[in-house]
Amino acid sequence: MAVFCNRCGTSLPNSARFCSNCGNVIHAAPLSPARPLVRPIAGRMIAGVCIGLAQAYGWDVALVRVLTIVSACFSGGLVFVAYIACWIGIPEETIPFPAMYPPPPGAYPPGPGPAPPPPGVSS
């Protein structure tokens, strides 16, 4: 990734902290937050391991799936064991539900009270 000075437009090396042409301070671009390694609910084929790895590291899902199948055929079962281990070890994505709050006091009208005893039963 090329770094340019915001003031004069000079191309700079990635490790530059100051512009060599005008002396302007070069601020590093903030890193984009990485997606956590989880097995998503949507888009999975078998267990969601391939799509979880692809989304976490920014890879193409189809490429990860093809490489998994090809390497499973030629690894003597090692990739299959690793897939099962990832299936067990990578947590499943949680579904965010809206929070449930108790109703405020007086939100519901008072009930009819306790039920009367059935006939023939003395209290």
Bin the strand percentage. under 5%
The strand order across the widest sheet is 1-2
Question: What radius of gyration results from the CA coordinates?
Answer: 30 Å
Terminus-to-terminus distance: 84 Å
- Unreliable segments of 5+ consecutive residues: none
Please bin the fraction of helical residues. Answer: 25-40%
Instruction: Tell me which oligomeric state these chains represent.
Output: single chain
Number of helices: 3
| β-strand number | 2
Largest sheet, in brief, is: 2 strands, antiparallel
Average pLDDT value? 83
SS content category: mainly alpha
Helix and strand sequence: EEHHH
Molecular shape: flat
Explain the overall architecture.
The chain is mainly alpha-helical and about 120 residues long. The chain has a domain at about 30-95. Helix content is about 30%, strand content about 5%. The chain has helices at about 50-55, 60-75, 80-90, and strands spanning about 5, 10. The chain has a two-stranded antiparallel ribbon. A hairpin with a 6-residue loop joins β1 (about 5) and β2 (about 10). α1 crosses α2 (about 60-75). It starts with a strand and ends in a 34-residue tail after the last helix.
